[in-house]
Write a structure and sequence with these properties.
mainly alpha; 8 helices; 50% helix
């Protein structure tokens, strides 16, 4: 993958922070350009009861999960294409992001229901496209083969017309993957987030922040 000329599926820290700040708004703005596929509706019904905050929930405890074994393999590989391990942080799959994706698309809420259709249809496209090009499903292909497909769909702005629908899937999948990753302890540490930590002292905003805001006192 040419990182200088081709938009990378890997998420850098600046982009991750931007997505975290806009996550709540993005769900409201997400249109239905990809809705209308053939994926079945979620098996979950209703909004359920308030969670027991003293209980440690496991995947599938709240509502039935969706992904088949084959779909989970594809999700795992694609998550790690977007957020691979590096010298600082673990990969997306190492911190449970595939479980997050499965929980997300299985939830009985309107926004998640729209994402369910987008993501399941997109996963099916990935396997079909991979089989067409290379004779294997996406998870069974080599890294360079998977990268070739991701390069074609990792940017809606530059994707060729025949890949526009797949690019919209990739954009949404990348956002869900990032949301799952950067709300884990490992993810927040990766971007240097220091909230929810007790401080022994607080010296106020840094001088450069005050200067930028035009505050002198």
């Amino acid at each position: 993958m040419n990182l200088e000329s081709t938009p990378s599926p890997r998420v850098d820290r600046r982009t991750a922070i931007k997505w975290m700040l806009t996550a709540s708004a993005s769900a409201l703005l997400w249109d239905q350009r990809l809705v209308g596929g053939t994926s079945a509706p979620s098996a979950a019904r209703g909004y359920g009861t308030d969670p027991d905050l003293m209980r440690a929930y496991k995947p599938g405890d709240v509502w039935p999960l969706t992904l088949s074994d084959a779909q989970r393999r594809t999700v795992t590989v694609l998550c790690d294409m977007i957020l691979p391990a590096d010298e600082v942080s673990p990969s997306a799959s190492a911190v449970g992001v595939p479980d997050f994706v499965d929980e997300w698309i299985s939830a009985p809420y309107p926004d998640q229901a729209r994402d369910r259709t987008v993501i399941l249809d997109g996963l099916a496209w990935l396997d079909a496209e991979s089989a067409r090009r290379f004779g294997y499903d996406f998870a069974a292909c080599g890294h360079m083969q998977r990268t070739a497909i991701c390069d074609d769909i990792c940017s809606e702005a530059t994707a060729r017309p025949e890949f526009s629908k797949a690019a919209r899937f990739f954009d949404r999948f990348r956002a869900v993957t990032s949301g799952g990753y950067y709300t884990t302890p490992e993810g927040t540490n990766d971007i240097g987030y220091v909230g929810n930590v007790a401080l022994t002292r607080f010296d106020g905003p840094p001088p450069e922040v005050l200067q930028r805001l035009g505050i002198t006192d």
